[in-house]
Specification:
Length: 338
């Protein structure tokens, strides 16, 4: 069995997530994976950053906008487009949508619920997960792009663990919100109908379709689908990145627990920034390597049932397509690390 099969790269995953503690190399691994899939598998790949502090543009050393931007310098059949989600803009859009829920096109009734609307908006704005909710909303849009065949794979470069895990709990959160909004919308319609029945000069058009309600019902269905996709190991894989250090390992273990809770399959562990063997000539580096050996044993103990990949520390930052390709070769190719 070749490494590609072992890693499930050839399994046809559509959604790949990279998560882990701050600074361990999530963005680097996401970029490398996207590049590998495009260059070696001929896939059309979208790599999405959901981290408010973006760095995909640093990895690829190129400007990346809030809409899919083609990455230059990718060889072969496939392509890589990259996008950095603007959480603030998405939050605004999401709040607009919520506002729609409370507003009927004509005929009043809003006034009765205006207080509730303001309250809800304030609550939403200040709730800690609002940027994740908005990002997830955008994420659903991107998922449709694979359904429509525009992309074969979407690689998600996520924010440091805490944020990401909240992001992944979004289907649950949004599901609750949407259900609540559906209920409110229905109440609002009843109020409107009632008003129309008692106010003689108001038109009463009971058959009028409620577009907003339809949109909400659709969203509810979509969220259910997303939950299914995220827990489907043939479509989705979450890959945990860590450095051979106690804190990073600890955080990855916590993440794994949460991912298990949401039934999101984890297939790979990337241990990044390992001291290369050639550093053994120096006392300092040799001491570090010995410490790292112990950490690697820990990693084997905790994550032994996953594919564990080691990526050495490079003498310089991983910046630009050529360096990203080097990381990809170590992660997925035949080249052996260090
Ligand atoms: N194997 C490596 N060797 C040397 N430098 C590396 C390696 N992997 C990543 N880096 C560098 O380390 C820094 C952090 O990497 P990266 O941005 O991928 O981490 P991250 O987990 O996405 O960080 P953040 O939590 O801030 O999003 C970058 O400057 C990157 O170029
Ligand atoms: Mg990053
Ligand atoms: Zn040294």
């Amino acid at each position: 069995m070749g490494i590609k099969e072992r890693l499930g790269i050839a399994k046809g995953h559509q959604y790949l997530f990279f998560g882990g503690k701050g600074g361990v190399g999530k963005t680097t691994c996401a970029a490398a994976t996207a590049l590998w899939l495009a260059e070696e598998e001929g896939k059309n790949v979208l790599v999405v950053s959901t981290d408010p502090a973006h760095s995909l543009s640093d990895s690829f050393d190129q400007d990346i906008g809030p809409e899919p931007t083609p990455i230059e310098g990718i060889k072969g059949e496939g392509k890589v487009d990259a996008v950095e989600i603007d959480p603030e803009k998405e939050t605004e859009k999401y709040l607009e949508m919520i506002k729609d829920v409370y507003e009927m096109q004509e005929g009043g009734g809003e006034d009765l619920l205006l207080g509730e609307l303001e309250e809800q908006k304030e609550l939403l704005k200040s709730s800690p997960g609002i940027d994740e909710v908005a990002a997830f909303h955008k994420f659903m849009e991107f998922m449709e792009l694979t359904e429509s065949g525009e992309y074969d794979v979407i690689v998600f470069d996520t924010a440091p663990t805490g944020h990401t895990l909240r992001f992944l709990s979004m289907p649950e959160v949004i599901d609750k919100q949407v259900k609540h909004m559906i209920k409110l919308r229905k109440t609002l319609r009843q109020v409107q109908k009632f008003l129309r029945s008692i106010v003689p000069f108001m038109s009463s058009d009971d058959t009028e379709e409620d577009e907003v309600l339809e949109r909400l019902e659709m969203m509810k269905k979509q969220i259910e689908e997303i939950r299914e996709i995220l827990s489907d190991a043939s479509k989705t894989a979450f890959r945990l990145v860590m450095t051979p250090e106690e804190m990073a390992i600890y955080e990855a273990r916590r993440a794994l627990k949460t991912l298990n809770h949401y039934e999101i399959p984890v297939d790979m562990i990337v241990v990044n920034k390992i001291m290369p063997k050639m550093a053994d000539a120096c006392d300092f580096c040799r001491a570090r390597r010995e410490m790292e050996e112990k950490r690697l044993e820990l990693i084997e103990k905790y994550f032994g049932d996953k594919e564990i990949i080691q990526v050495p520390m490079f003498p310089e930052e991983v910046r630009g397509v050529d360096k990203v390709r080097k990381v990809a070769e170590i992660m997925y190719g035949e080249a052996s690390p260090a």
